[in-house]
Amino acid sequence: MWNENTGGYPVHMNRIVILTAFVAAGAVCAQEFPAKQIRIYTTTAGGANDLIARLVASGMASNVNWTSVVDNRPSALIAADIVAKAPADGYSLLVTTDNLWIGTFLQKVPYDPVRDFSPITIATRAPNILVVHPSLPVKTVKDLISLVFAEFTVNAAYWPL
C-alpha cells in the first residue's frame, strides 16, 4: 500500500529497512575491540605528554578494561611518524601538542597532519605565557616588539605582526 507519510514507500518496506538497520548494528556491536594491546605513542618519559598518555592508558584500563601501553619516543616527530605509518585500526594512538601542526611550518616532516591523523579529543589545556627578565624596560608585548626592532636587525619579511 502506497503511503504519502513515508515518502511514498509502502509501510512494510520501512519496517524492513529499520529491521535491517538493527540487525546490522547488532553485528557491528558484536565485534570485539580491542583484540590486542593499544599502543599510545608520545614524547620522552616524564613530560606533560607522557603524564597525559599514562592517564589515558589508566582510564582505558579502569573504565573499559582495555589494555594499553605508553610508548615513549625521543621526539614528537618520531612518535607522529610511527603513528602516521601504522594501520588505521585504532591500535596506535598519539598524544601530542600543537607541535604536530606547527612542526610542518618549521621543518619538513614525513607525514601530513591533516591527512594522516584524526583528532579524537582534547585531553588537556595549557596556557602559553610570554615572560621577560625583569631588567628589560617592557611591560607589554607591544613594548617588547618595539625593543626588538630598536635593538636588533630584524627582517620584516619574516616578522608575522
Strand order of the largest sheet: 2-1-3
The total of beta strands comes to 3
The top-level CATH class of the largest domain is: Alpha Beta
| Distance between the first and last residues' Cα | 68 Å
Just name the CATH architecture of the largest domain: 3-Layer(aba) Sandwich
Stated plainly, the CATH topology of the largest domain is called: D-Maltodextrin-Binding Protein, domain 2
Task: Using brief descriptors, characterize the structure shown.
3-stranded parallel beta sheet, 161 residues, D-Maltodextrin-Binding Protein, domain 2, 40% helix, 5 helices, 3 domains, elongated, mainly alpha
Question: What does this entry look like structurally?
Answer:
This protein is mainly alpha-helical and about 160 residues long. The protein contains 5 helices and 3 strands; from the N terminus they run αβαβαβαα. It has helices at about 10-30, 50-65, 75-85, 100-105, 140-150; strands at about 40, 70, 90-95. A 3-stranded parallel beta sheet has the order 2-1-3. The termini are far apart. The model has no long low-confidence stretch (mean pLDDT about 80).
